[in-house]
Amino acid sequence: MSVCVSGSYTLFANRSNLKTVAVLSREKKNKMGVQYDLKQGQSRNFHELPSGLSMEVIVQKGEEKKKNGEHPLPPLVFVHGSYHAAWCWAEHWLPFFSSSGHDCYALSLLGQGESDEPADSVAGTLQTHARDVADFICRNIRSPPVLVGHSFGGLIIQYYTSNLGSDKLKEDLYPKLKGAVLVCSVPPSGNSGVVWRYIFSKPIAAFKVTRSLAAKAFQTSLPLCRETFFSATMEDHVVKRYQELMKESSRMPLFDLRKLNASLPVPSVPNCPLEILVMGAKDDFIVDEEGLKETAKFYGVSPVCVEAIAHDMMLDVSWEKGAKVILSWLNGQEK
Questions:
Q1: How many CA atoms lie within 13 A of 22 on its CB side?
Q2: Where is the AB hydrolase-1 domain (predicted)?
Q3: How many distinct structural domains can be found in the chain?
Q4: pLDDT tens-digit profile of 170-205?
Q5: Are 213 and 312 in contact, with CB atoms under 8 Å apart?
Q6: 146 versus 204: which is more confidently predicted?
Q7: pLDDT, tens digit, for every residue of 116-135?
Q8: How far apart are CA 53 and CA 115, in angstroms?
Q9: Measuring CA to CA, which residue among 38, 325, 334 is closest to residue 184?
Q10: DSSP letters along 300-318, please?
């Protein structure tokens, strides 16, 4: 991939089709009232979609000293879930994986973080979000990446992978992947099964989850925010910081959940053409163990359940646990 700089724009050219797309090299006017300060080695760019709307991309390139092996390490593209944005990956996991040599790209889906908002009441659909991710990869990433998705971001990746196969049109629309990692992902059938299991087996938890997420009570209740996303040992000031960022990240709903559930389950993937890691958290307050097993069974793999960590695995106090599982899996793919 060649990079050309012209004025305030950075142009990425994909050698395979010589198409170019403008990515703003300067920051746009801030959309989030609470700003996320980037860490050393990170940059904030904006990928322009065919619609003219721009997606925020936080980039952290891999350390060169660890990239000079026989086989170049695959780039990693991170996709967040509801009430989050690119910053949730930039906090811990981008520095961690870039220090191991991986080029890292964290996206903010439309209507989230510093990305533009579409002219609708919701940010998009499973299909439009997956196409936006695909467009970014097609125009900016030279070699097949590994997609890493959290929660509803994992469901978006599942839809992406369902479009991979022998169909030439789909190959053009959805670039090939090296692999995919589903982190505390919403299962292929959606979250309705999880909700109903909670109602019958954990009615108090069901009430709390509904109040926290559907009624957005996590935005005003520190204890509820902690219980929903993090471990009990996370300090108040850290929970407060993430709470404020999550509140500012989601200016509009990621999906219309009724329409989303009506479109599910995601299409099956016979003879899935890539390796998939399905990973969950033992203390997940949102996606239960049955949901984790459903996703793993869908892809014919054994799930990995990380002990003593909560739903926001990439932000939690023991964030290294999940990161190390993924890194070990990535290293295994390179052998």
A1: 11
A2: 76-311
A3: 1
A4: 667 899 999 999 999 999 998 877 777 777 677 877
A5: no
A6: 146
A7: 999 999 999 999 999 999 99
A8: 8
A9: 325
A10: T---EEESS--S-TTTSTT
DSSP string of 190-252, one letter each residue: -SHHHHHHHHHH-HHHHHHHIIIIIS-GGGT-HHHHHHHHS-TTS-HHHHHHHHHHHHHHBSS
- Rounded CA-CA distance 292/302 in Å is 10
Other Cβ atoms less than 10 A from the Cβ of 260: the count is 19
Q: Shortest CA distance to 152 belongs to which of 120, 96, 194?
A: 194
Instruction: Answer whether residue 326 shows pLDDT above 60.
Output: yes
Alpha-carbon gap, residue 301 to 132, rounded angstroms: 27
Instruction: Please give the pLDDT value at position 193.
Output: 75
The DSSP element (H or E) to which 136 belongs, if any, is helix 126-140
Domain limits at 249? 2-333
Whole-angstrom distance, CA of residue 175 vs CA of residue 335: 23
Tokens 């219980």 belong to: 227
3-state secondary structure of 171: helix
What CATH number is given to the structural domain containing 243?
3.40.50.1820
Question: Is the separation of the CB atoms in 177 and 161 below 8 Å?
Answer: yes
Q: CA angle, corner 199, sides to 195 and 204, nearest 5? A: 110
